[in-house]
Write a structure and sequence with these properties.
With 91 residues, this protein is mostly helical. The protein has 6 helices and no strands. The protein has 2 domains: 1-34, no CATH class; 36-91, no CATH class.
Length: 91
C-alpha cells in the first residue's frame, strides 16, 4: 500500500514540475494506455440491454458506435448492403 502511495506521490510531483504543454502530453499518453470501452467485450446480452432504461442503454452502446460505423465502411460484407440503399425501390 505504501509503495503505491509513494509511486503516486512521485508521479504527481514529477508531473507538477512539467510545463502545461508537457502535462497535457502526459495526460494524453496516460489516457491512451487505458482500455477504451469499445475495446472491451460487451458482457450484456441483447435481452439484458433491452431491459435497461434507454439512457443507460444509450450510454453503454455509444462507445461502440464509432467502431460499428467504421465496420460498415470497411467490411465488404457490410458495404454490400449499403450499395443496395442507392437503388430506387419504387422504379
Amino acid at each position: 500500500m505504501t509503495e503505491t502511495a509513494n509511486l503516486e506521490q512521485t508521479l504527481i510531483e514529477t508531473i507538477r514540475s512539467l510545463t502545461n504543454a508537457k502535462q497535457e502530453a502526459v495526460l494524453s499518453f496516460a489516457r491512451s494506455l487505458q482500455p477504451r470501452d469499445a475495446d472491451r467485450p460487451l458482457t450484456l446480452s441483447l435481452q439484458q440491454l433491452a431491459k435497461l432504461p434507454i439512457a443507460e442503454r444509450n450510454q453503454i452502446l455509444s462507445a461502440y458506435i464509432p467502431a460499428t460505423a467504421q465496420d460498415f465502411l470497411d467490411d465488404p460484407e457490410l458495404t454490400e448492403f449499403s450499395v443496395l440503399d442507392t437503388e430506387g425501390w419504387e422504379d
